[in-house]
Design a protein that fits this description.
- The complex is a heterodimer of chains A (320) and B (293).
- Chain A is an alpha+beta fold.
- Helix content of chain A is 39%, strand content 11%.
- In chain A, the strands form 2 sheets. Chain A has a 5-stranded mixed beta sheet with strand order 2-1-5-3-4. Chain A has a two-stranded antiparallel ribbon with strand order 6-7.
- In chain A, a hairpin with a 2-residue loop joins strand 3 and strand 4.
- In chain A, helix 4 runs antiparallel to helix 7, helix 7 crosses helix 10 and helix 11 packs across helix 15.
- The mean pLDDT of chain A is 94.
- Chain B is an alpha/beta fold and 293 residues long.
- Chain B folds into 2 domains: 118 residues, Glutathione S-transferase Yfyf (Class Pi), Chain A, domain 2 (Up-down Bundle); 160 residues, Rossmann fold (3-Layer(aba) Sandwich).
- The longest helix of chain B is centred in the N-terminal third of the chain and has 17 residues.
- Chain B starts with a strand and ends with a helix.
- The chains are: A alpha+beta (320), B alpha/beta (293).
Chain lengths: 320, 293
């Protein structure tokens, strides 16, 4: 057993004007999880400490808290691995309003799932036909494999806690919701794929993810939300839902590499905005002028790489 | 020490000061560079959204060319580094995929074996060159300079594609700043996202991301910020006037590329480092270190 100082962020909105950190010194029993430690603190040191827990088996997702700055399932995290110089910092999840101590308001998180219709849309669902008369819809193992990763989500909100796009734009659907969307877009039994992809391609959807990788890093399951979002983008492009800056950016980027092997930074912003998007194009002018005046503008004559023929051959071979 | 030098697109385009400073620093340190002029863009995580196989094939071609030279790859862009690491893992972990890709590469006379190592300059300075050796070459210690480290996402996350053994706890940039005589600023923004990948899709959100970290660095009294990723540099520097408006603060925080900071401490000429090529002037805050260089 080793003595550890747990620095826990406390906040009771009924009493405190702002959050504060309270230290608890405690022996950490061998094999204890962070949740075991939180329970020991509550039961033996300070009954006013408030935290969530339920299954203690990494299934329910209720005990997610920040441990040393990043979200973890308290029940799945060995305390010994999180002790840094004899200390451990525990805080509520980020990107959420604190209700009390380590408990955050998850309502905004849960309500966003409605935006992506997290249920199967089948022909039967829209008809008056009784479910008992509908033939079973089978799914091959290969088809299931496409939705397997997203299906492991336990909705603990760890991904949202560290999501950079959510932090700067609360309207962003967020990684968990978009992963859930992929689970239905790629479900071979679903009949609303096009409608879903159109909805997801709107503002605050798939094209607002910034690729920061935090969700992949923090997810305690196997969802890898960013990979699911990338998959949705690929699907959107394949389905021709390309009238938006995100999809145009991808198409313009690929065009540039196909023609010169490297990115033409003079052209890509224009292609991303769209040549008929006058406000978008105008918004590029100030930064363009600023960079030009500092000699930071990319060379006017865009040179291709050496051995460009080989790169062109690869594009041709892959029919891109 | 010799590397296959992968410049990436930005160092040849809107961030040419990254190229010149990297070359100057490598020369000063005696690191030999073989510049790869016949390789394509890494895809920046964008091409793979159109077609993952195309992205992996283009990167495999780059790997094969470096292998033919019997050299490991040196990246100077955090995004190139992360994308290449991901591609390499995807190819190396799937024998069938590797076979398919080599079949495509064959007609161009290339074959990817899977042995090349992909490293970022930061990793090379810390692990291959050695921080103590670098420290001995510092002629102008950055004494009193408070530098905010800004890693950029791709160098750290997902950790499965990072060269750093513990990306959440790595102190590579901080260690480097200390070795150069400076003082690293401790702030949460160090490992956050600059927002650049969505600047064309949602400018407000993108620049807010930069703003959150820049404001925090400024509040922690940073004199400047250093980043090993030129895409972060584009958002943090080129868009800083717009970011000022979003965070309602005149930030005036100079943003340095990693080799520029190293170059200043090594006494390299400021023009060679391209310190005059920034939107936010580096002159005012760094003047005491640049004088006489």
């Amino acid at each position: 057993m080793s003595k550890v100082i747990f620095s826990i962020r406390r906040f009771n909105p009924e009493k405190d004007s702002k959050p504060y950190y309270k230290d608890y010194e405690m022996n950490v029993p061998e094999g204890a999880t962070v949740l075991d430690c939180l329970n020991l603190i509550k039961w033996t040191k300070d009954g006013t400490l408030t935290h969530r827990m339920s299954c203690r088996s990494a299934i329910c997702g209720s005990c997610a808290v920040k441990v040393n700055g990043h979200p973890k399932l308290a029940c799945k995290t060995q305390a010994a691995e999180e002790i840094i110089n004899g200390r451990m910092k525990i805080e509520p999840l980020g990107n959420a309003k604190v209700l009390k101590d380590l408990v955050v308001d998850l309502e905004p998180f849960f309500s966003k799932f409605q935006k992506v219709k997290p249920w199967l849309v089948t022909e039967a669902a829209g008809s008056q036909q009784s479910a008992v008369n509908v033939k079973e819809t089978r799914q091959s193992p290969e088809d299931f494999h496409r939705i397997d990763a997203a299906s492991t989500c336990i909705m603990c909100a760890s991904c949202v806690s560290d999501c950079n796009s959510w932090a700067s734009n609360e309207k962003f659907f967020g990684p968990a919701v978009l992963a859930k969307a992929q689970r239905f877009v790629d479900d071979s039994r679903d009949k609303a794929t096009l409608e879903r992809v159109i909805n997801l391609s709107e503002a605050n959807g798939i094209w607002d993810c910034t690729h920061c990788g935090e969700c992949v890093e923090r997810c305690p399951a196997e969802v890898k939300p960013m990979d699911r979002i990338v998959s949705l983008r690929t699907t959107a492009i394949k389905m021709g839902i390309v009238n938006n800056n995100g999809a145009r950016h991808v198409e313009g980027f690929v065009d540039s590499i196909r023609s010169s092997g490297r990115l033409n930074e003079n052209i890509i912003p224009v292609k991303s905005m769209g040549i008929f998007n006058i406000p978008g194009l105008l918004s590029l002018i100030p930064v363009g002028i600023r960079m030009f005046l500092k000699g930071k503008n990319p060379p006017i004559i865009h040179k291709h790489i050496d051995e460009m023929d080989d790169v062109k051959r690869i594009f041709k071979r892959l029919k891109k | 020490m010799k590397y296959a030098f992968y410049t990436g697109c930005v160092a040849k385009g809107a961030g040419r000061e990254l190229y010149s400073s990297s070359v100057a620093v490598a020369k000063r340190l005696g690191i030999e560079l073989h510049e790869l002029t016949n390789v394509s863009c890494c895809g920046a995580g964008v091409i793979s959204e159109k077609d993952p196989l195309l992205s992996d094939t283009l990167n495999a071609r780059t790997f094969a060319i470096a292998e033919e030279l019997n050299l490991d790859i040196m990246n100077i862009c955090g995004t190139c580094q992360g994308v290449m690491m991901k591609a390499q893992k995807s190819i190396n972990g799937d024998v069938k995929r590797k076979g398919n890709i080599n079949e495509i590469l064959k007609d161009g006379g290339h074959q990817y074996k899977g042995k090349v190592k992909v490293k970022h300059l930061l990793h090379i300075l810390i692990e291959d060159y050695g921080i103590d050796k670098l420290k001995r070459l510092v002629t102008r210690p950055l004494k009193g300079l408070k530098v905010a480290p800004f890693y950029g996402c791709y160098l750290l996350r997902p950790s499965a594609y990072s060269n750093f053994s513990s990306p959440d706890r790595t102190t590579a940039l901080e260690d480097l700043i200390i070795a150069l005589g400076g003082e690293p600023v401790q702030y949460d923004g160090r490992s956050k996202c600059c927002g650049f990948p969505i600047v064309m899709m949602n400018k407000e959100s993108s620049l807010t991301m930069s703003g959150i970290s820049l404001k925090e660095a400024k509040e922690k009294n940073a004199d400047c910020l250093v980043t090993p990723c030129p895409l972060c540099h584009l958002n943090l520097d080129s868009y800083q006037p717009e970011i000022d408006k979003i965070v309602q603060t005149k930030l005036n925080l100079p943003i340095l590329h990693l080799p520029q900071l190293v170059g200043i401490a090594l006494g390299i000429d400021s023009k060679e480092l391209g310190l005059n090529k920034h939107i936010v002037s580096t002159e005012k805050i760094l003047s005491s270190f640049l004088k006489g260089l």
